[in-house]
Please model this.
Amino acid sequence: MQWLFLVIAGLFEVCWAIGLKYSKGFTNLVPSIFTILGMIASFYFLSLALKNLPLGTAYAIWTGIGTVGTIIFGIVFFKEPMDTIQLICIGFIIAGIAGLKLVSPH
Model:
């Protein structure tokens, strides 16, 4: 169950990162509320995962999911540029997430 909580936490991290862009420095009310709620949900689910997972592993996977998800969202919805080297680096992040999961004792 802790791994599911960690994935949910990572997805909420993507949500608050997207909301942060739309909040325009917390000057737009609705995106600002969305961002804050996403942060709370992300930290909550991370805290649940941390009950049984090692801190370093959970934190690295949480930030990795958030990083990759935010990059993908930026490419698809904000038309942010992406080149081959960047895609390779994203692949390394994904490989790192998978590797940490595979070697985790839980």
